[in-house]
Write a structure and sequence with these properties.
Length: 308
């Protein structure tokens, strides 16, 4: 799957992943009313609105980008119906040929970690039949519990040719409370990055490993150090746009060939119709068109990132 993702990034010249992180406040009134008329003001109605919102977004951006990243919490908050919308979103993205990064941030040990890995990336056996439950192509994973939490995911990645993105240096303001702590003369995020490179060496694609890393756009100096520590690691970069990361900050995350990173934007694209410079240009019924224009603009912006 890492090879497919890298080929799509090169083919489209778009190192972009769109975060499908819908909130009800992002959804136009006409779509909410339609969902509620069919399902009522219920969890099912909310989930239907999420799904219909996502479908329009996907229809408008699928041909521009290599990957999407649905954030599971935005669906889990609506219980079982929300998770049905999550599954429908994954399946529809696959129908469109998109790589799906499940932003699930799992982190446990032993049989529990194995169960998470099977559920999101692997397969389960039920009687005489085998199922791929959620069937994402990648999943985000929290390394706080060490190799006991990561090894079950790596095993499934090796079996299924899928991948993970390990949290290394996240984009949120308080990440430094733990991630920047100095241990034996080096910050914790460097030690984690070193471990990611080690894990990744056990499951390589053509040029990059199945084991990627999450490094926020808001910390470019740290990104530069981590790029050197993890030369064969694809870096998933959150924090662009709404969180303050700019294209001019992103050069350290890429290798000299212009590859090595994929940059995420979530509400900057999926809620573009409510934000400048798109506000009022498309109307609420044109929210998909606004998302497409925001995607085009992001791709063009990333072309200004210095290479080599």
């Amino acid at each position: 799957m890492i090879n497919k993702l890298m080929k799509q990034i090169e083919k489209l010249d778009a190192p972009v992943v769109v975060g499908l992180d819908p909130q009800l406040s992002f959804i136009p009134d006409f779509l909410m009313k339609k969902a509620f008329s069919e399902k009522g003001e219920t969890l099912e109605g909310a989930a239907e609105a999420l799904w219909q919102f996502n479908k329009v977004l996907i229809d408008n951006i699928w041909d521009l980008i290599p990957a999407v990243k649905p954030q599971v919490a935005m669906y889990e908050r609506f219980g079982v119906p929300g998770m049905v919308a999550y599954q429908k979103t994954i399946d529809y993205c696959h129908e469109k040929g998109l790589v799906v990064i499940g932003d699930v941030k799992r982190g446990d040990i032993g049989s529990t970690s194995a169960a998470y890995a099977d559920g999101h990336l692997g397969k389960v056996t039920v009687g005489s039949r085998v199922f791929a439950p959620f069937d994402e192509d990648f999943a985000t994973v929290n390394p706080y519990l060490g190799s006991d939490g990561i090894d079950p995911f790596i095993k499934v990645c090796q079996e299924e040719k899928k991948g993970i993105f390990v949290l290394v240096k996240t984009s949120n303001p308080s990440s430094g409370e733990f991630q920047d702590r100095v241990i034996d003369g080096r910050p914790l995020y460097e030690w984690v990055g070193e471990k990611v490179a080690q894990w990744g060496s056990t499951c390589m694609g053509d040029s990059y490993s199945y084991v990627g890393a999450v490094v926020g756009a808001t910390y470019p100096k740290m990104g530069e150090v981590l790029r050197q520590i993890m030369p064969h690691t694809l870096i998933l970069v959150p924090g662009y746009g709404a969180q303050g990361g700019k294209a001019s900050d992103l050069a350290p995350y890429f290798n000299k060939d212009g590859l090595g990173a994929i940059v995420n934007s979530s509400r900057g694209i999926i809620a573009a119709w409510k934000k400048e410079p798109y506000l009022g240009r498309f109307g609420e019924e044109g929210f998909g068109d606004a998302a497409r224009q925001a995607t085009v603009d992001m791709i063009e912006d990333l072309k200004t990132v210095p290479k080599g």
